Amino acid sequence: MEKISGAFSSDHVRCDELFFRSEEHVQRHEWWRAKEMLTRFIDEMNGHFLKEENILFPALEKHTANAAGPTQVMRLEHDDMRQLMKDMQDDIETQDADHFLGSSETLLIMMRQHNTKEENILYPMADNVLAGDQGEILARIHEHEEKRGMSRWNKNEC
Length: 158
Hints:
single chain; mainly alpha; Four Helix Bundle (Hemerythrin (Met), subunit A); 5 helices; 0% strand; disordered C terminus
């Protein structure tokens, strides 16, 4: 049976692959491919962030008196990562590989730290605290993905 943690952790894997592919294209100065991969990466990341911010975090905050602290930290980190992704888009437009790679290195560190907190603390907490609502939450997650057209990026194609 699918768990909340599995649904979100699989997003991390997919996003990471798109991220690394965009970096590879920038390193080779393949700007149109880098732009395509970065666009896909940002689309996937924003979809992931919205599923957390609109579905998971409110559910946790409703069921856990202390959840506002961890979820608020995650929201702030999402904002920081969104800014770095915007900077990276700008770098592709100006074909500034050095700045892009500096920003991507910072983003990679942030993503690793962020994902570790989510995968080792927040998601297991969600699996436990929201066990009774798991089916409903997973249905909302899948509905969100369908509405956003997230299936347009083949989940197995990275």
